[in-house]
TrEMBL record:
<dbReference type="InterPro" id="IPR007546">
    <property type="entry name" value="DUF503"/>
</dbReference>
<protein>
    <recommendedName>
        <fullName>DUF503 domain-containing protein</fullName>
    </recommendedName>
</protein>
<dbReference type="Pfam" id="PF04456">
    <property type="entry name" value="DUF503"/>
</dbReference>
<dbReference type="InterPro" id="IPR036746">
    <property type="entry name" value="TT1725-like_sf"/>
</dbReference>
Length: 95
């Protein structure tokens, strides 16, 4: 079994946490519904201009897990977000 983890850092042009959440929440919900992955904002929760989102997938095939993570990353890059992609990391863990 393979667990795949994707971590994405976004710079968000917001002045308040409410503005930040208005950008981050739809991204998280869209990823959850489109890719059937576990997705959450995991870091910088109180930072107004930064969001760190993680997605996790589980598969019996490491290639499939990696393909899912790459598809999620591509979707984030393709969507016209009101945010700048700062960092993107993937990791595959064998369990």
């Amino acid at each position: 079994m393979t667990v795949g983890v994707l971590r994405v850092s976004l710079r968000i042009p917001s002045r308040t946490l409410k503005e930040k959440r208005a950008i981050v929440r739809p991204v998280v919900e869209r990823l959850r519904s489109r890719f059937n992955a576990s997705v959450a904002e995991i870091d910088a929760l109180d930072a107004v201009g930064l969001a760190v989102i993680a997605a996790a997938v589980i598969s019996n095939d490491p290639r499939h897990a990696d393909e899912q993570l790459q598809a999620i990353a591509a979707a984030i890059q393709d969507w016209r977000l009101d945010a700048e992609l700062v960092d993107l990391e993937t990791e595959l863990l064998d369990a």
